TrEMBL record:
<feature type="domain" description="Metallo-beta-lactamase">
    <location>
        <begin position="20"/>
        <end position="181"/>
    </location>
</feature>
<dbReference type="InterPro" id="IPR036866">
    <property type="entry name" value="RibonucZ/Hydroxyglut_hydro"/>
</dbReference>
<dbReference type="InterPro" id="IPR036388">
    <property type="entry name" value="WH-like_DNA-bd_sf"/>
</dbReference>
<dbReference type="InterPro" id="IPR001279">
    <property type="entry name" value="Metallo-B-lactamas"/>
</dbReference>
<dbReference type="Pfam" id="PF00753">
    <property type="entry name" value="Lactamase_B"/>
</dbReference>
<protein>
    <submittedName>
        <fullName>MBL fold metallo-hydrolase</fullName>
    </submittedName>
</protein>
<dbReference type="InterPro" id="IPR050662">
    <property type="entry name" value="Sec-metab_biosynth-thioest"/>
</dbReference>
C-alpha cells in the first residue's frame, strides 16, 4: 500500500495564492512531486527532504510560476539528475507529456491524468482512484474561485472542464479535492457544483452589465474602458488593485466567451 499524498506548502501567501502553493508528493517507493512551487530555497529543501531517496519525477498541473518556478532551482535540478527523474508537463516547453507509462515510472501511486484546460490551456488534474481524491491544481481552489484570465485562460474551456471533472468523480460526495492553493475540499462534487453555478451566474451578470452599459455609455467605448466599466458593475466590492486587475482579465475572458455563437 502506497503512502497517503503528502503536502508541503510554500511560504508564498497572497491574494492569488491564498496560504501558499500546495506542493503534493505521491507514492512511497517512487515519489512524484506535483507542482514543486516557487524557487524558494527553504521550500525546495523541504520538498526534497519529504521525497527522500524515492524522488522519481515532477509533474506540473500548469505552467504558472507559483507552481513551476522551482524547476529552475539547482537543488531540484541536481536531485532529479541524480535520481534519473523526469519532468512531466502538458506544456512541451517545460517537460515530457505525462502519459500513462511516464506516470507509472514516476510514482507507485495509481493515477489517472485528466486534461482540464481553462485556467490555462495546459491545465491538468490528477485523479487518485484508490484515494477517491483529485489533485485539481488551480482549476478548483480550496476556497474562492480560480481566475480565468484572458488570454491565458479560456472560460468556455473552463466550464467544459468543470463539467467533465464532475462527471468523472460521480455524484456520491465521497471524493476529496486536493487543490493547488487553500485547504482540502472534503466534498469535491459539491464544490464543483457550486463553482459551476457561480461561474454561470457571473456570465449572466456580465451579460446584464453589457445591456445596461449599451444604454448608458457612448458608442465609442470599447476595449479596456468597457472591461473597466463591467468590472465596476459586476465586482463593486473588489478594491484590492491585484484583485481588480484579475477581475478585469476574467471579464475579458467572459466577453470572449459570450461572443462565441454557442454562448451568445
Amino acid at each position: 500500500m502506497t503512502g497517503e499524498p503528502r503536502l508541503v506548502r510554500a511560504d508564498n501567501p497572497g491574494p492569488m495564492t491564498l496560504e501558499g502553493t500546495n506542493t503534493c508528493l505521491l507514492g512511497a517507493e517512487r515519489v512524484l512531486v506535483v507542482d514543486p512551487g516557487p524557487a524558494d530555497d527553504a521550500h525546495v529543501a523541504a520538498v526534497l527532504a519529504a521525497a527522500g531517496d524515492a524522488l522519481a519525477g515532477v509533474l506540473l498541473t500548469h505552467r504558472h510560476p507559483d507552481h513551476a518556478e522551482a524547476l529552475g532551482h539547482p537543488l531540484l535540478r541536481d536531485a532529479l539528475a541524480a535520481a534519473g527523474g523526469t519532468v512531466l508537463a502538458a506544456d512541451p516547453a517545460l517537460g515530457s507529456a505525462p502519459d500513462a507509462d511516464r506516470l507509472g515510472a514516476a510514482t507507485d501511486e495509481p493515477v489517472e491524468l485528466l486534461a482540464v484546460p481553462g485556467h490555462t490551456d495546459d491545465s491538468v488534474a490528477l485523479v487518485l482512484p484508490r484515494r477517491r481524491a483529485v489533485l485539481t491544481g488551480d482549476t478548483v481552489l480550496g476556497r474562492g474561485t480560480s481566475v480565468v484570465a484572458h488570454p491565458d485562460g479560456d472560460l468556455t474551456d473552463y466550464l467544459t472542464s468543470l463539467a467533465a471533472l464532475r462527471a468523472r468523480v460521480g455524484g456520491d460526495g465521497s471524493w476529496r479535492g486536493l487543490p493547488g492553493h487553500g485547504p482540502v475540499l472534503p466534498d469535491l462534487v459539491r464544490a464543483l457544483g457550486d463553482l459551476l453555478a457561480h461561474r454561470h451566474a457571473r456570465v449572466e451578470q456580465v451579460r446584464t452589465a453589457l445591456t445596461a452599459l449599451g444604454d448608458d455609455l457612448d458608442d465609442d467605448l470599447d476595449g479596456d474602458a468597457l472591461v473597466d466599466a463591467v468590472v465596476a458593475r459586476v465586482y463593486p466590492e473588489v478594491t484590492d488593485p491585484v484583485l481588480v486587475h484579475a477581475a478585469g482579465r476574467t471579464v475579458r475572458a467572459t466577453l470572449v466567451h459570450l461572443a462565441r455563437p454557442a454562448t451568445a
